[in-house]
Amino acid sequence: MIRLEKRPEPSRFWTAVTPVLAVLTTMIAGGVLFAMLGKDPLESIRTIFWDPLFNAQFADFARPQLLVKAGPLILIALGLSLGFRAGIWNIGAEGQYIAGAICGAGVALAFYPLDSWIVFPLMVLAGALGGWAWGMIPALLKIRFGTNEILVSLMLVYVAEQFLASMSLGLLRNPEGHGFPGSRNLQEYPAAANTEIIAGTGMHWGVMTAFLAVIAAYVLLNRHILGFHIRLAGQSPRAARFAGVSPPLLVAFCLGTSGALAGLAGLFEVAGPAGQISIDFNVGYGFTAIIVAFLGRLHPVGILLAGLLMALTYIGGELAQFMLGLPAAAIQAFQGMLLFFLLGFDVFSNYRVRRVTSEVA
Amino acid sequence: MTALLTVEGLTKAYPGVVANDDVSFAIAPGEVHALLGENGAGKSTLVKMIYGLVRPDAGRMRLRDTPYTPSEPRAARASGVAMVFQHFSLFDALDVAENIALGMENPPPQRQLARRIREVSEAYGLPLDPDRLVGELSAGERQRVEIIRCLLQDPKLLIMDEPTSVLTPQEVQILFETLRKLAAEGTAILYISHKLEEIRALCDNATILRLGKVVATCDPREKSAAELAEMMVGTKLTPPERESAAPGEVVLDVSGLSMKSANPFGTTLKNVHFRVRAGEVLGIGGVAGNGQDELLAALSGESRVEPDAIRLKGADVGQLGPNARRRLGLLCAPEERLGHAAAPDMSLTENAILTGVIREDLAARGFLRWGAAQGFARRIVERFDVRTPGVGHAARSLSGGNLQKFVIGREVLQRPEVLVVNQPTWGVDASAAAAIRQALLDLASTGTAVICISQDLDELMEISDQFAALNEGRLSAPRPARGLSIEEIGLMMGGAHDMEVADAI
User: Fold this and answer.
1) Any idea which fold A58-325 has?
2) Closest residue to A8, CB basis, from B301, B370, B397
3) What's the rounded Cα separation, in Å, for the pair B52 and B45?
4) Domain B238-329+416-495, CATH
5) How far is B42 from chain A (nearest CA, A)?
6) For the whole model, what pTM was predicted?
7) Are residues B339 and A236, on separate chains, in Cβ contact within 8 Å?
8) What is the ipTM, given to two decimal places?
């Protein structure tokens, strides 16, 4: 019989080693899955993890994509991780992402075709405010009426999607678009376009913001009393109140901040890679970011790495679909395994496994 | 007389600690046998093995000369072994009869059961109305429900785990009458406690455990309390000393403090009045659940009250939060170490920041000064002899006594004007408890007003200048502690809560 036994303290060794172990196990289990689908497992794994970065044929296109995809994931996951650390569960980043994109694009379209440097900063502000406001809805409802923020924030995703559809068909529709749904393409409006800072790298302003946010989150959590209170509230709410933390303020801060960061991610996406508001503008970054946050163990640097890894599996997954004909569902199952194994191996950082040989009566 | 239960060489090891090491003793029918030992001496593990909750690693038990290996509590009960736990397992929303039926294998119909409850409760002087809701009962009455639940099974051996920790002195007397009556009828009673006077008053024999081993067996009536304590602890204990200083000005003035509990099953504080002077120790006694947690929350600022209900050196502080009160010098140490006074998974340094950030200046414009925090944590560890490999270790890795020393030390080192502690030595070994009491007295002698909320009357009598008791959310008028008799204290705690005394046969 095997027995789990709680360690007095989390093991540093296991905390460091579990992500690596989880990735390796995912490769093995994923390989088995791909083999059962009749594909060469080694080639599949290589296509997902190696080819996007180092295969000369694909790298030129895929490498910049890595940052383009990782940027919003990291930005959103950082915001979520603050709340998750405090025990405040914002599941609706997708909605806040949409709200930020609509507000930012709205500002751009309102100024169109004004050519001024002020347009882009105003858009950034509007994007952050839009996401913040969308995040504050579950926050205020929780503070005032004690509603569950998980449900409210999740439901608001679907409300935001309806807004998005309405906007791309109505208010924000391109007047010169021959009646097609969708707004003007912001990439064709230089004052509003989120362009690459270094051409050919995928490094746009959103990725830059994500990197800065990693540093800011690290400082907040490790050096600032507010970050200390966030961690304290998540670990022992009663001790946090004893330390003078006000739960309503914490709820407002965490949901507001994660909303603002998700809104920023939406704005940078709509002004950059996506280019326009359209019915299918959102592609699930807000939900995938939840996985990224946990894969990065809610640690800013961990989230940076997890965001890059997750982006890689997306790009590599698409490549595998295209080159090897792997079904999209298999790729999703593969990504799911990653989180599954990580959480599974996590047991070892807090527990020790013991073999119980016999029970004496 | 042949033994009812013999225990031979019982051993049980948990990771990192041997809870019971080769423990042997015997108990005869009609004997009241004490298991005496400090917290962590292995008393609970031993009785859990007898009650079938834990399986021993080695050793044998014999009940009425037949091998006895209970695989679960149900088997133990079937063999005539019953146990009253320290913490009750009762449902507030059900009545007495329903609660008792839930603990039985084949409960009879309610009406028949109610009649049996009345019969048994009257026979043993434990009057109890089977139709009352458990939520309305006092702690003493709840214990009766548990005892009657056991008695209905007609036990041969009744195990009682620290039964008096929830009782007033008067209620203890009633319980003892019942237990003596049971013993006279031939029921063996295994009585677990660390309260020496009780054991001397009640028990025929005592087995003394220390660090999992039997260190002595004796007749407690032939030993003095000091001798028993020495056997239990292994060293001589010196009672705390204090230099008596003349009390100074009134620092904390609580008047007309009323507060509804944040917890639906909590106690409402009703019109609490008291004053504490600089250099004075006010002891607040009372049975658990009579408003202790609520009083601490009202004083710490976790619950807000009317501004003028609490005045600190003349300033209204009732509406201020915990940190504003800390700034003014009102510090607290709650009862629950893990999860309230300290965060279990955080390091000692982080736990030092938890309450020390303001008075110890551990943050500059919101940014934490880790070096200073570490220094503060180290000072606590050194000054209060906290045994830990380092301040980077998680709070949960410390033993109860060490963590408690850390928690108390953290507040004491911040030079409070007023320090409020709730159950400062609960679950702490005797030497750590003595160190904590001494620290509180030393603090008082430097002019701090100390309020000690505790259920340990011996502790309160040892350190208090003034004594008051909480009963159903009301605080009795404080009286000088010196010269108070145990009866007077009991009456302040609510007397017998209207429970009747067992009828003499």
Assistant:
1) ABC transporter involved in vitamin B12 uptake, BtuC (1.10.3470)
2) B397
3) 10
4) 3.40.50.300
5) 19
6) 0.81
7) yes
8) 0.84
